Hints:
Elements: E1 2-9, H1 20-38, E2 42-47, E3 55-60, E4 63-68, E5 77-85, H2 89-96, E6 105-111
Amino acid sequence: MQYMALIYSDPSxxxxxxxxxxxxxxxxxxxxxxxxxxxxxxxxGEELTGVETATSLKIRNGKVETMDGPFAETKERLGGxxxxxxxDLDAALRFAAMIPSAPYGTIEVRPVMKHNS
Length: 117
């Protein structure tokens, strides 16, 4: 079964870009990615650009409306994701707990909905 781990974090709590702590976190991400692939559980995973590059879209009364930035105001931002292919939620949670940003934010884990078509 596939699960998506959405990586939310508060930039003010993360190590500063370019700092030794940031470099250590990135090494941890590369090691996590390697372990996920070695376990055969990696489906996808990417970092997202900053919220300042986001465009939100909605359709109201048949018209498309767009706005700069994320729709919701929040301290935490969606910074990236992984998709795991694992037997169950417990396995997905074990991998999600290994994501290096977990100490700085929240990892939301959800099953991926599969539709028969």
